[in-house]
Every structure is written in C-alpha cells, then in structure tokens.
C-alpha cells in the first residue's frame, strides 16, 4: 500500500500515520522527522534546514525530493509506505510523480484530513506546551505562535493545491479530521479497505 497523508499542521496526520503503519506494516516516512533528525545530528542538510524550519518555511524542494527518493528504495518499503508531510507543494508533487514513474511505483491513495484552522492553533499550542514540559524532547523550534500562523499560511498557499492535483488523478480521499482520534482511524481504514 503506497499512501500519502495530507493535512495542515496539527491535523493529526502523524498520529494517524503511525497507527496505519502498525496496521499495514508499512513505514511512515515523515520528512519533518527526517529533517529534525538531520538538524539534531548537525549534518549538511540539517544546517541548511535549521533556520528555515524554525521560521515555518519550506526547505528547498530538491532536498526533500532527494531524501524521499532514496528512502523509498529501502528494504522496509517493499510492502509500501506512508508519505507524511511530503509532497508539500505542486513542484514536489510533480517531482514525486517523476520519481515514482522511474521506479515503476503506483500510488494507491492520498488521504487528506480536513480540519478547522481555528481548532488547529489551539491543538498545536497545547502540543507545544506539553512537549515543553517533556524535558527529554523539549519544544519544537517552530511551535511558537508566530511560526505556527506562518506554517498554516504556507499550508493554505502551497500545500492545499496538492489535494487538487491528486483529486484530478482520482486518488484523493478527503476525511473529516475533526472527529475523535479513533473515529478518524476507523474512517481511514474503511477508505483503505475499498482500494
Ligand atoms: P507540521 O505538519 O506540524 O507542520 P512537519 O514535521 O511535517 O510539521 O514539518 C516541519 C517543518 O519541516 C516544515 O515546516 C518545513 O520547514 C520542514 N518540512 C517538512 N517536510 C517538508 C517538505 N516536504 N518540503 C519542505 N519542507 C518540509
């Protein structure tokens, strides 16, 4: 099963992707997690991404396309994968198309979690507070109120059009991300069952 999870910051994409990962035995590939790991490790990519991410802007397309293109070749992707946080603009979506054609891979579905932007701000600020109390992890650099508003704007302007791109291909499934977590998981599983 080759899937993309689409949705604004705070939509619960990461949580749902982790559940589907376990249920279908396919890895969740989060470009945000990979970039944060690169920042923490101080790699070249990490150095390039650090300030961009803290502002809530997008890191350059070639960086994330390169990361994903290599990652989906790994042995654990033999059954498929869940792309979480990628593609995030039309140019990444087109580049991904090229990569998939080259590798002979077909996407099965794009799951979009639709949510109310007002709720998102509250959810993320709560998450930021919780992780600030968790000394092991600490707060994310981009969970400040200012960066959050910027991330939501970037989503509206650059990522929302990606949904239309996949709708035209007939593989977009838009679900209500405002329901209880378990209910959303159930909706996703029902959508995947008919694929
Ligand atoms: P969220 O969904 O909460 O915004 P992510 O963990 O997906 O968080 O991403 C955090 C940050 O990492 C983004 O704001 C951006 O700076 C960077 N990033 C992640 N994925 C991409 C991508 N596909 N293209 C460009 N930048 C990305």
Q: How do you describe this structure in short?
A:
This protein is α/β, with parallel strands linked by helices and 195 residues long. The chain is 58% helix and 12% strand. The model has no long low-confidence stretch (mean pLDDT 95).
CATH C-level: Alpha Beta
Q: Tell the overall outline.
A: globular
CATH superfamily: P-loop containing nucleotide triphosphate hydrolases
Strand element count: 5
Bound molecules: adenosine-5'-diphosphate
Query: In which order are the strands of the major sheet placed?
Result: 2-3-1-4-5
Distance between the termini: 9 Å
Poorly predicted segments: none
CATH architecture identity: 3-Layer(aba) Sandwich
> Cα-atom Rg, whole angstroms?
16 Å
The fraction of residues assigned to DSSP E strands is 5-15%
Structural class: alpha/beta
Number of domains: 1
* Rounded average pLDDT: 95
Proportion of residues in helical segments: 55-70%
CATH-defined topology: Rossmann fold
Biggest sheet record: 5 strands, parallel
Order of helices and strands: EHEHHHEHEHHEH
Structural account:
- It contains eight helices and five strands.
- The chain has 195 residues and is an alpha/beta fold.
- It has one domain: P-loop containing nucleotide triphosphate hydrolases (Rossmann fold), CATH 3.40.50.
- Strands 2-3-1-4-5 form a five-stranded parallel β-sheet, sandwiched between helices.
- The model has no long low-confidence stretch (mean pLDDT 95).
- The site of adenosine-5'-diphosphate has 17 residues, from helix 2 and helix 3.
- The site of adenosine-5'-diphosphate (ADP) has 17 residues, from helix 2 and helix 3.
């Amino acid at each position: 099963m080759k899937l993309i999870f689409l949705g604004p910051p705070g939509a619960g994409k990461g949580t749902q992707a982790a559940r589907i990962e376990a249920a279908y035995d396919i890895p969740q590939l989060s470009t945000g997690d990979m970039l944060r790991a690169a920042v923490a490790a101080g790699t070249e990519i990490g150095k390039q991404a650090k300030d961009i991410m803290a502002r809530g802007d997008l890191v350059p397309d070639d960086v994330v396309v390169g990361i994903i293109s290599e990652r989906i070749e790994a042995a654990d992707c033999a059954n498929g994968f869940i792309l979480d946080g990628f593609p995030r603009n039309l140019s990444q979506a087109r580049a991904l198309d090229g990569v998939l054609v080259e590798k002979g891979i077909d996407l099965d579905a794009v799951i979009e979690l639709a949510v109310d932007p007002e709720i998102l701000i509250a959810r993320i600020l709560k998450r930021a507070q919780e992780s600030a109390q968790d000394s092991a992890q600490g707060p994310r650099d981009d969970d400040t109120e200012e960066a959050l508003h910027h991330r939501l704007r970037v989503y509206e302007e650059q990522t929302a059009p990606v949904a239309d791109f996949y709708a035209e291909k007939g593989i977009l499934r838009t679900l209500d991300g405002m329901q209880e977590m378990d209910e959303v998981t159930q909706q996703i599983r029902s959508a995947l069952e008919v694929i």
